[in-house]
């Protein structure tokens, strides 16, 4: 099939125009909104309460840091952790979220207390009693209803938030996340993020899942002005705006329902947006570069909660109708410095600060609430008192609460859960053509065909499995592993992306967090360096940082190649990076049988998996059952039994070790026992150690450069576990500590070979302790 969008030469003279971006158009007041019925008096009070709560929360942190928070003074409580406060930005958090439903998603930032507080309040106020009782989950929750229930839930919400900041077990993330990674997945809060821009790809992925599942949800993505110069952010905007989601390529055209909210508080850490570190007056202009309608962008007075709410209500409406993505720039001001260690004096004046405080969002709404007679001065004083008392008692409770048990430090790095059963609603799968099928000869197919067979089987089994990456659709991937998949499963489930490795992984994380089981492709493992944050800080860490409250069932397929003269940036074996990152499972098959069985297991596992494919093996043939089977993780294969030396190798080196073993036996009479771990994380140390106890000698081999290679870890663990049994030090084989060169002669010298494995085995066998 040829994709039917022709690209023909057309050089007609023209001038490109950009969509206009309205700025500061809102002229409404609370009086107008009440009169028009667009807001009810209670809405105004809710907004005010949430904003007051955000500010009081942040002021509490200032006092805590100064040891001046009265309720905890006597306890001599020390607050540790970040102090990235959002005072001055309350209208952005509250106004932007007010039009959401409790099940919609948000992603937030290192300065995200306000976003999280608002999302919790929103859920408590808008959900029915039953859901709030379930969320509250306290012993007397079922006895409470209505306003009493809501009060208790608000108290609990602030308690869980403070407890998280204090690192307590009762915190939203069981003390694993803290201020900069706080999340509550039960209300669609997909996490604050300490990496500037880090959550923007996740928000895009949440939009992908909402689009694919058509569940009516949207995602509001908060990020600062500083973030809008970050690569992954710009990649994400592009990946949200790809035409294929809305044009004739789409099965059911629907734009990605993510609303990008730039919280422009004028400064990055201290770098000034306008006039210093960007070349534009408003960052909303960025949207014009990605979308013909500039993502319906608007610039809004972020100090006016009514203006923010009104603009966001339209943005959210557009997103729900499939007209996303949408962008809003909220112009506001951060009253404090970047953190409490920043005195602000070097980069801004007192006059500037005073000018912004003069348009303070809380004072503004408070005054309108009074002027409209929504509440009296006394009632508002009472409201402030309720909020302050809520924070004080939550803080006292949190300070006294239990810490997470120290012995549980590694709990939640991985989840044990696994997709054993596909939920009913995902079992029905539509195909557009017969899925690609490998021709078997004597039961044999190639490694590449085995990968494709696993993908086909899993995509037929579970409609949550989707597949995307660079050139994976019509072309079938750089190595043709996915050829025929788009024809069979359609472009909703199999699609090309832009060349945006960070956003490919990051959207995968977001989609995985929100109900899909994406398989994404990184064409060459060298390119994982482009996606380092999304792999190592996002995919790997979210299960742990959420205290085990969410999972990231993402598979990253990546290929590793060498020996073809591709040079230094297309020939690296980088599995050691992933093995060094707690939270990632690392799978490295070496036979067609394992390629299929391990990939199927990877897709069903609820952890993020790096699935590494050796390019050298793609055309290797082997017996692969046509029927369903899984190869479990953490179970090494003993490829050959022997008594003299144990050789452990993975990927294409596991094939080389067979050759080496033949030579060792034929030419030296040495019988090597060959172990292919199949998965590096988890590592089946037991099988390796049992073999070493028998042979007393061990060689560990990978194609990775020797220094810092995971071979060192395996060798070290073998030495720790079997020191008394070893007759010689464990030998390690890898590529030279050099850069993969173009020259054939040099590349041969660079890469490990069957010969180098033989040499290592001989050294191990003839060396004395
Ligand atoms: C990728 C990355 N680079 C640098 C930092 C250090 N840092 C933390 S916050 C910050 C400024 C972020 O500016 P902006 O996105 O505008 O958010 P704001 O702090 O103004 O809310 C910087 C540079 C980081 N956390 N992550």
What would you note in describing this structure?
Helices cover 39% and strands 11% of the residues. Strands 8-7-9-10-12-11-17 form a 7-stranded mixed beta sheet, sandwiched between helices. Helix 21 links the parallel strand 11 (585-587) and strand 12 (609-614). The longest helix has 25 residues, at 41-65. The radius of gyration is 29 Å and the shape is globular. The chain starts with 29 loop residues before the first helix and ends with a helix. Bound molecules: thiamine diphosphate.
Q: Could you write a compact summary of the structure shown?
A:
By secondary structure, the chain is α/β, with parallel strands linked by helices. Helices cover 39% and strands 11% of the residues. Helix 11 (305-320) links the parallel strand 4 and strand 5.
β-strand number: 19
Q: Compute the separation of the termini in Å.
A: 63 Å
Shape: globular
| Widest sheet: strand ordering | 8-7-9-10-12-11-17
Mean pLDDT: 97
- Please tally the helical runs, counting DSSP H or I stretches of 4 or more residues: 26
How much of the sequence lies in strands comes to 5-15%
Largest sheet: 7 strands, mixed
Structural class: alpha/beta
Poorly predicted sequence stretches spanning 5 or more consecutive residues = none
Instruction: Provide the helix percentage.
Output: 25-40%
């Amino acid at each position: 099939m040829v994709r039917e969008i022709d690209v023909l030469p057309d050089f007609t003279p023209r001038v490109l125009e950009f969509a206009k971006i309205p700025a500061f158009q809102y002229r409404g007041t609370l009086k107008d909104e009440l009169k028009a019925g667009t807001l009810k008096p209670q809405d105004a009070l809710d907004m005010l309460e949430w904003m007051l709560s955000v500010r009081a929360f942040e002021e509490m942190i200032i006092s805590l840091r100064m040891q001046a928070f009265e309720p905890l003074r006597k306890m001599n409580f020390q607050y540790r952790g970040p102090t990235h406060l959002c005072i001055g930005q309350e209208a952005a958090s509250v106004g932007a979220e007010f039009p959401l439903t409790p099940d919609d998603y948000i992603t937030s930032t290192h300065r995200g207390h306000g976003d999280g507080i608002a999302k919790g309040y929103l859920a408590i106020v808008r959900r029915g009693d039953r859901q709030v009782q379930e969320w509250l989950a306290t012993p007397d929750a079922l006895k409470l209803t209505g306003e009493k229930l809501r009060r208790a839930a608000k108290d609990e919400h602030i308690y869980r938030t403070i407890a998280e900041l204090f690192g307590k077990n009762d915190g939203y993330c069981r003390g694993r996340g803290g201020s900069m990674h706080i999340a509550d997945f039960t209300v669609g809060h997909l996490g604050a993020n300490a990496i500037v821009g880090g959550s923007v790809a996740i928000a895009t992925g949440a939009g992908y899942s909402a689009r694919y599942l058509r569940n009516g949800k949207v995602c509001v993505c908060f990020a600062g002005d500083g973030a809008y110069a970050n690569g992954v952010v710009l990649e994400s905007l592009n990946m949200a705006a790809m035409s294929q989601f809305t044009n004739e390529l789409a099965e059911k055209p629907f734009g990605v329902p993510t609303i990008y909210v730039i919280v422009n508080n004028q400064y990055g850490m201290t770098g000034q947006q306008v006039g210093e570190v960007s070349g534009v007056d408003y960052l909303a202009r960025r949207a014009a570069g990605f979308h013909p309608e500039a993502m319906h962008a608007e610039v809004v007075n972020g100090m006016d909660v009514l203006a923010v709410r009104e603009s966001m209500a339209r943005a959210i409406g557009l997103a729900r109708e499939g007209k996303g993505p949408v962008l809003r720039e909220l112009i506001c001001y951060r009253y404090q410095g970047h953190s409490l260690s920043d005195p602000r004096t070097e980069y801004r004046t007192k006059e500037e600060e005073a000018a912004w405080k003069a348009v303070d969002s809380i004072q503004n709404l408070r005054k309108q609430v009074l002027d409209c007679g929504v509440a009296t001065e006394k009632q508002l004083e009472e409201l402030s008192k309720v909020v302050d008392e809520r924070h004080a008692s939550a803080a006292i409770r949190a300070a006294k609460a239990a810490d997470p048990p120290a012995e549980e430090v590694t709990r939640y790095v991985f989840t044990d859960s696994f997709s054993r059963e596909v939920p009913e609603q995902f079992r029905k799968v539509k195909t557009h053509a017969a899925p690609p099928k490998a021709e078997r000869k004597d039961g044999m197919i190639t490694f590449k065909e085995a990968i494709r067979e696993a993908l086909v089987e899993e995509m037929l089994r579970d409609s949550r499995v989707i597949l995307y990456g660079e050139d994976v659709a019509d072309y079938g991937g750089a190595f043709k592993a996915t050829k025929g998949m788009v024809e069979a499963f359609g472009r909703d489930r199999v699609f090309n992306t832009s060349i945006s490795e960070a956003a490919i992984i990051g959207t995968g994380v977001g989609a995985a967090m929100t109900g899909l089981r994406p398989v994404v492709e990184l064409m060459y493992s060298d390119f994982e360096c482009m996606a380092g944050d999304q792999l190592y800080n996002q995919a790997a860490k979210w299960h742990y940082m959420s205290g085990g409250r969410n999972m990231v069932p993402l598979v990253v397929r990546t290929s590793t190649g060498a020996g073809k003269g591709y040079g230094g940036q297309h020939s690296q074996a980088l599995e050691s990076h992933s093995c060094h990152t707690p939270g990632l499972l690392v799978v490295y098959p070496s036979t067609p049988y394992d390629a299929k069985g391990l990939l199927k297991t990877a897709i069903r596992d609820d952890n993020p998996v790096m699935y590494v494919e050796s390019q050298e093996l793609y055309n290797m043939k082997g017996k692969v059952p046509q029927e369903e089977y899984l190869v479990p993780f953490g179970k090494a294969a003993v490829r050959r039994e022997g008594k003299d030396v144990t050789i452990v190798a993975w990927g294409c080196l596991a094939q080389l070790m067979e050759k080496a073993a033949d030579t060792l036996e034929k030419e030296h009479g040495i019988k090597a026992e060959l172990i292919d771990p199949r998965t590096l994380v988890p590592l089946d140390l037991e099988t390796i150690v049992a073999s070493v106890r028998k042979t007393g000698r061990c060689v560990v081999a990978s194609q990775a450069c020797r220094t810092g290679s995971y071979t060192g870890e395996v060798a070290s663990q073998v030495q720790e576990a079997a020191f008394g049994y070893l007759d010689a030090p464990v030998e390690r084989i890898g590529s030279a500590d050099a850069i993969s060169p173009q020259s054939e002669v040099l590349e041969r010298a660079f890469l490990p070979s069957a010969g180098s494995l033989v040499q290592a085995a001989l050294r191990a066998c003839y060396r004395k302790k």
